[in-house]
Write a structure and sequence with these properties.
The chain has one helix at residues 2-41. By secondary structure, the chain is mostly helical.
Length: 42
């Protein structure tokens, strides 16, 4: 039982970190694309 609970905890942490990295990547893409737009206007 304890082993199963540990596995679930590990899986939840993996999912959470995956969501965080996806979130960071989307923010980074938005920032870089807006920076490209700014440099194109000048």
């Amino acid at each position: 039982m304890n082993f199963y609970r540990h596995q679930v905890k590990i899986r939840n942490e993996k999912i959470r970190s995956g969501v965080l990295t996806r979130f960071r990547e989307s923010i980074f893409i938005k920032i870089s694309s807006s920076l490209i737009n700014i440099t194109n206007e000048f």
